[in-house]
Every structure is written in C-alpha cells, then in structure tokens.
Write a structure and sequence with these properties.
The complex is a heterodimer of chains A (278) and B (97).
Chain A lengths: L7 E6 L2 E7 L2 H11 L13 E8 L5 E6 L5 E3 L2 H19 L3 E11 L2 E6 L6 H9 L4 E4 L2 E5 L4 E2 L6 E3 L13 E2 L4 E3 L10 E11 L7 E4 L2 H10 L14 H10 L1 E7 L2 H14 L1
Parallel strand pairs in A: 2-3, 7-14, 14-16
Antiparallel strand pairs in A: 1-2, 3-4, 4-5, 6-7, 6-8, 6-9, 9-10, 10-14, 11-13, 12-13, 15-16
Chain B lengths: L1 H7 L14 E5 L2 E6 L4 E5 L1 H9 L6 H9 L6 H17 L5
Antiparallel strand pairs in B: 1-2, 2-3
Helix pairs in contact in B: 3-4
Chain lengths: 278, 97
C-alpha cells in the first residue's frame, strides 16, 4: 500500500504507526479532532495497524470500521463509532506494546513530574483531569497510562479528553465534539508529548457528601492491590508471579495517596500543594 | 445472618487449609493474595495476615487463637470472635478449602 492519498490519516501512538483510510471528510475531521496531537506525516514503512473507515448513506446510514484479519465493526452512531474505533485500536496497541504496563488511569504533569489518577470508569478521572488542565497541570492522558517499567516513565496518550457530562466548573471550548454518548474535548495547549518520570499516584474516589477533598497516604500493599486491579495487561508481566511483582515495583517507586474528591477546584489546589511541598 | 450462624457453629478444632493455586506475597508486613489464577487480589491487614500465615493445614483455629494471644492485648473471647470472622471471610472468598 502506498501512503500518499489525502484520505489517509497517520497516527503515532506509543511508537506504533497507525494509518486510517477514511474518505468521508466528516469522519476524518472527527478523527483529527480526537487524535490531532498524535498525527504524523505518512510513514515510508508499512504501518503497524491499518484501518479503513467507510460511511454509507444508503439504504441507511452506516459506519464500518475495517482492519485486516478482523471482523468489521458497524454502527450508525458517531459516539459509538468513536468508542468502537478507540477500543479496537487501544486493544491492538496493548498487543503491539506488551512491554508497557497499561494502567486504567488519567495522567498529568506538574512541575516536570507525572502523576496518575487511578480509578474505575465513571469515577471522574476525565472530569478531574479537565479541572486540573485549567489549574496549571499539563496533559498526558485521561484514560490510559502506559508505563515503561524499566524507566518508570509514563508514555503520553493525549487524545481528546472524553467526558460523560458537562463539567461543573471550567466551560468547555467551542470546538468540543458532542455525541450521543460522550463529549470530546481537544487539548492542544499544555500537552506533554514526551514520556515523563512517574512520581505520584492518586487512587481516586468520588464522595458528594464531603466538603473538602481528603488526601492521605496509603501503604505499598494497598497501592499494589489497587494497581493490580486497575492494570489492563498485568498478566503480560507475570514473570512467574501473576504480575503482582510489576504492581509492587510501581507502588514502591512512587508516592501513593488515596484521594476522595468532590469540589474540583479544591482538589486541584490540594494536589498542587502536596506535590510542591514534597 | 448466614455469617453469624456460621461463626456460632464453627468447630474451633477445625484445621484451615488453603485452596490450591493461591499466590501469597508479603509487602512490608501486609499480605496480598491472588486467587482464581490471578483474576482476584485480596489485601490483608496485619491481623488477617497473621491468621493467614497459620492457615497452613497444621494449626487448628484454637491453635491460631493461642498464637495470636501472644501478639495482641485483647481478651480470649474477643480474639476468638475476630479470628473466626477472618476465617469466615477467607472461606467466603474461596481462599480456604
């Protein structure tokens, strides 16, 4: 295949190359909005992943995502299309970069240090990330934090921030993309495009009953258990111990805190104070 | 209620035996246990870690109570209740046979 067509998008994610052939200018503009921070020139070598995305209007609107040696993914909904494409691509990237430990986490930078917000889906990682981006932090990811275990560096995945609802503070930019499922917020400034040393992990919980955020250190054992539970490919790092050693080594390397959050602005300030004082 | 009934009927001469294929990892005095081939992880506090240490197929619940009485300043009755509760939880989590 020759990568010269204007209908191609080429992405570089975790040092892997992904090409997406998409004739629809509408779908192409959506992908540019979401993955704009990771678009590169067309590669001279064969890409690691190749997608083709087709939009059919007749007999009914249908978006089809095709990848070699894989069944097509179909949907008629833009939000679902974004979800399906991202899910398939990130799963394939985890296979291609199985040397990385993929943590279900937001990742941000403050004063040259990377921090993770680890939490299950729906706990507020992206909403907290949005508040932090408006409070002096830089962006690496809101959903997926790949970690190089040898160097303990976080590899950026700065796709558009993905919110499930309008945040309570800090108005979203006009170019945000609203779909039936999610709101996608392009982050163009304050983006960290290179790997950063991981220094802090906050295990995030949301409690609407509190008036002040509660941040307290947790033990290495508790942190290891939480990391193990929130890692997507921990068993790829088993070394005969079911991956627990990888979780323990990460937990030992960083400062671990539980973070019970409610008021976003106060939460951001508390994290900054903590990271500055340490 | 089921748990309380189980505790009341617990025979303290029973010898707890760990389920096969469990991985135990000590981390700074606390214990992490992986079961179901790594699909589940459990974190034990210091007391539960000590109980787990003696759930080795050699010590009865009575033995474990006696051993832990040397570690903690607590009544025999209270410690027996706490250890029975912990062992019930181990059993419910599938960590004991």
């Amino acid at each position: 295949m020759i990568y010269s067509d204007k209908n191609f998008l080429c992405l570089s994610i975790f040092n892997c190359t992904i090409t997406v052939y998409v004739e629809s200018s509408h779908l192409r503009s959506i992908l540019k909005k979401i993955y704009g921070n990771m678009i590169i020139q067309m590669p001279e070598k064969v890409a690691d992943l190749e997608y083709e995305i087709s939009l059919y209007e007749e007999p009914a609107k249908q978006i089809v995502i095709s990848r070699k040696e894989c069944s097509d993914l179909n949907t008629d909904d833009i939000g679902e299309f974004i979800f399906l494409f991202e899910k398939d691509m990130t799963i394939e990237l985890q296979k291609l970069r199985s040397d990385l430990l993929f943590i279900h986490s937001a990742a941000l930078e403050y004063k040259g240090m990377a921090l993770l917000l680890v939490a299950p889906s729906g706990t507020g990682k992206s909403t907290t990330s949005w508040a932090m981006l408006n409070s002096g932090f830089s962006y690496l990811s809101d959903e997926l934090a790949p970690l190089e275990l040898n160097s303990m560096q976080v590899v950026p995945y700065p796709h558009a921030l993905c919110l499930k609802a309008e945040p309570p503070i800090f108005k979203l930019p006009d170019d945000s993309l609203y779909t039936s499922k999610t709101i996608h917020v392009p982050v163009s400034s304050d983006v960290s495009n290179s790997s950063l040393a991981l220094s802090y992990i906050f295990y995030l919980e949301y409690d609407e009953g509190i008036t002040e955020p509660i941040i307290k250190p947790i033990s290495t054992a508790e942190a290891s258990a939480k990391l193990y539970s929130n890692s997507l490919n921990i068993l790829a790092h088993e070394n005969g111990e079911n991956g627990i050693q990888a979780a323990i080594s990460v937990a030992r390397h960083v400062k671990n805190y539980s973070l019970i959050s409610n008021h976003l602005d106060k939460t951001c300030e508390q994290i900054k104070i903590l990271m500055t004082s340490n | 209620m089921d748990s309380i009934l189980y505790i009341n009927s617990m025979n303290n001469e029973l010898i707890p035996v760990r389920t096969d294929d469990i991985i135990t990892q000590d981390v700074d005095g606390e214990t992490l246990i992986l079961n179901n081939h790594g699909a589940e992880i459990h974190q034990l506090n210091d007391v539960a870690s000590l109980v787990w240490k003696y759930c080795d197929g050699k010590h009865s619940i009575t033995d474990i109570v006696q051993i832990l009485l040397n570690h903690y300043t607590v009544s025999h009755e209270q410690l027996t209740h706490d250890i029975e509760t912990v062992i019930c939880q181990f059993k419910e989590k599938g960590l004991l046979k």
